[in-house]
Amino acid sequence: MRGTHSETQEGDALSVCVEGQAPILLQVTALTKRYGDQIALADIALTVRAGEILGLIGPNGAGKTTLLEVLAGVLPADAADLCWRGAPLPPARRRDVLFYLPDGLRPYHEQPVARVLAFFAGVYRRSPAHMADVVAAVGLAPVLAKRVHALSKGYSRRLMLAVGLLTPQPLLLMDEPFDGFDLRQTREIMGVLRRCAAAGRTLVLAIHQLLDAERVCDRFVLLADGRVRGAGTLDELRTRTQFPAGSLEEVFLALT
Amino acid sequence: MHSPETSVVRHAPLWPLLVKELWEILSGRALWTMLLLLCPLIGSSFVQAVSLYSEASAAALQSPVLARGLSPLDGVLVPALGAWYVGTTLLFPFVAIRVLSQEKESGALRLLVQLPYRASTLLTAKLVAVLAAWVLASLPAVSALGIWGLLGGHVSPPETLTLLVGHLCYGLLVGAIALFAAALADSAATAAIITLAFTIGSWVLDFTVAGRPGVLAWVAGLSLTQTLRPFEQGLLELRLVVGITAAIGGFAALAAVWLPPGVTVRTKLSRSLGCLLVTGVLLALATQISLARDVTEDQRNSFPPADQWALAQLTQPLVVTVHLAPEDPRYADLQREVLAKLARALPHVTIRLASGRHTLTSSAGDEAYGEVAYAYGAHVATSRSTSPREILPLLYDLAQVPVPTAIAADAYPGYPCVANAQAALLWFCGGLPLCIGLTWWWTRRPPHIDRSVCMQEVNHADW
After folding, report:
1. Distance from first CA to last CA of chain A, Å, rounded?
2. What would the pLDDT profile of A122-172 be if each residue is shown by its tens digit?
3. Helix or strand or coil: residue B102?
4. A interface test, pick of B18, B102, B110 with most A CB neighbours within 10 Å
5. A1 in a domain, yes or no?
6. pLDDT tens digits for range B189-206
């Protein structure tokens, strides 16, 4: 997927399916969210293409988590038009096609890890073999008998990732998936996510570490102060900012 | 690793959700702490009730007349289970609140609402978990019933089952209120305050406005403790069961409305209004159900069988106008001995309390005060009696039907029992808490992990 997109403006690409590009899975337009008088997200528009890893990039407070929660339907929006493969996607139907993994969550902390995984595997009718694969992929085997509250930050992240891998929805939204991992672990988890995307799943990752985002994402949506400041592949963003060899960090600083 | 098959998800099996909810409630300390507290509470109530009952029985063993006044329902079961009622009122809300607030506070609710279940299904599973907690909480009370039987005490199955149904209704109602409060509030502490406002507020209503006339009488009727009383008296009233079920459903529906975080408050309010309307209609319909069954062995809630049969034949409406203040003890006697029984025995009875202008202090000079007027068809008769022996003949006279001949039936013998239940304290303060502690430990054991899950190699080729 990396570097295959040619859109320069999200709005331009919404109604166009360019030959050779993956089809648009999710199309978001006019998404606005307010907390009282404060505007958290203003007129957000973006597209998510099948099989890509899309990075939502922005500093703390940019609105990344709010955007993911609104997309997932766990936070009401003041206004939002979402289309899934061209058909309207109301909040009640979001969970049919996408799953959102919140940041810093330790679900069911009195339960052993194995029981939490068995719950999600049971809900989605995943086979024991599939569950074993997921456990092996994210490296959870040593802590299966441990209670969730006793897990380290890294293992609780792995647990959440395992939950995400057990879900079958075509689109997986993850908030700060690498937070709590060291460099080696981050690269390991990136590999897991890459294989997940290569197998046909689409990922949207909210990341504030630009280096991590640059390594793993195919395309980027740059957020600052609740607004989209730019979108596209790194090459497209470089062209737009006239930094031909610029890093994502330099591009981001130029656009925000 | 297997390929992560993607698909649109709309349905999911129910059992993983139920299993998860049951493990969640078993894993919390609240349930086990409540159980450990209930053991000595119910045990001491039981031992004291048996002691008092034995003292009364010692005298009654020589006197059949005294023995007839001894009912284990009143003497042992209701007092022993009274401690359970206190536990349900004060402790059970914390257990029920945990079922939902734990997920809210940890953020797991955001995962839960994304699963392919309706909010109503999620709430039903949580209500099942609350029911399971109530069943576990009933163990000390049920063991008290068993010990009473072992001591030679009489246990009437219909009376006992009715009493247990009453406690079940009360427990589930408190549980449903707790779930609603947990869905509404951001924290468990706030949810506890809301729930205790209902349960302890009911006690306040009982103490302050019970027996008052007019609107206050209606307000007093909202007390949750009113739901248990008829069951404790051995009355199985269908209207009460249906009404409590409607209230439980109403609170659960409200909890389902307020559960999803992705819905605006305005939408939640409009849906809540719909829930309240439907529940209100169901409650109003429930009040129209007159079917009731007196399950007591001594038929204390009914007239003698011949009178019951004769009264059931009176097809015209009977209007009773009572000139008594509600707080007057004579009114309580009349209500218990005559009016409540008439309402169950006759097909059409209207009882009017001419109490708008009556209070105990203001009625001193009112000559009509104390009179009860009975109007049947075109005939009216008045009486100041509160005894059915005087009032029933008066009614037969009004209806111009003969006084029925008494049907020969076995008189209630009463069940005196002299027993010493002190040894039961060993069970309630030692054996049962030990069993509960062991079960708690068992639930905390690490689960068995299938070695194949640990040893699996990642199959990268499939990714």
Report:
1. 26
2. 999 999 999 999 999 999 999 999 999 999 999 999 999 999 999 999 999
3. helix
4. B110
5. no
6. 999 999 999 999 888 888
Instruction: Give me the interface pTM, i.e. the ipTM.
Output: 0.89
Which tokens sit at A95? 């969970």
Residues B297-301: contacts with CB under 8 Å, at least 24 apart: B297/B71, B297/B156, B297/B159, B297/B412, B298/B68, B298/B71, B298/B412, B298/B414, B299/B412, B300/B71, B300/B233, B300/B234, B301/B233, B301/B234, B301/B235, B301/B340, B301/B341, B301/B344
Instruction: Examine the pLDDT at B446 and tell me if it is beyond 90.
Output: no
Residues B261, B109 contacting (CB under 8 angstroms): yes
* 8 Å CB contact of B13 and A107: no
pLDDT in tens, B212-247: 666 777 777 778 888 898 999 999 999 999 999 999
Distance CA A173, CA A101 (A): 6
Give yes or no for residue A17 having a pLDDT over 80: no
pTM of the entire predicted model? 0.88
CA–CA distance, A55 with B97 (Å, rounded to integer)? 38
In order, the DSSP letters of B262-311 are TS-HHHHHHHHHHHHHHHHHHHHHHHT---EEE--TT-TTS--HHHHHHH
Q: pLDDT tens digit string along B173-185?
A: 999 999 999 999 9
Q: How many domains does chain A have?
A: 1
Question: What tens digit of pLDDT does each residue of B331-345 get?
Answer: 888 988 899 999 888
In this prediction, residues A3-18 reach a mean pLDDT of 41
Residue B219 CA, chain-centre distance (Å), reads 18
Q: Which of residues 134-163 of A touch B (CB under 8 A)?
A: 134-137, 141, 144-146, 163
Q: Give the domain range for residue A221.
A: 10-255
Domain assignment present for residue A3? The answer is: no
On chain A, the residues whose CB falls within 8 A of the CB of B9 are 95-97, 124, 167-169
A203 strand-pairing partners: A53, A172
Q: What is the CATH number of domain B305-399?
A: 3.40.30.10
For chain B, domain boundaries: 15-294+414-443, 305-399
pLDDT of residue A1: 46
Whole-number Å distance between alpha carbons of A182 and A41? 31
At residue B7, the pLDDT reads 66
Find the closest chain A residue to B12 by CA distance: A123
Contacts of A12 (CB under 8 A, 6+ apart): none
DSSP β-ladder status, A53-57 and A219-224:
parallel
**Confidence at residue A4, expressed as pLDDT on a 0 to 100 scale:** 40
DSSP class per residue in A218-242: SEEEEEETTEEEEEE-HHHHHHHHT
Measured between CB atoms, which of A109, A145, A198 is closest to B463?
A198
A176: domain CATH number is 3.40.50.300
Is residue B111 within 8 Å of residue A148, measured between CB atoms?
A: no
Residue B442 with chain A: CB contacts under 8 Å: none
Q: Give pLDDT, residue B362.
A: 60
Cβ contact, residue pair A75, B263, below 8 Å:
no
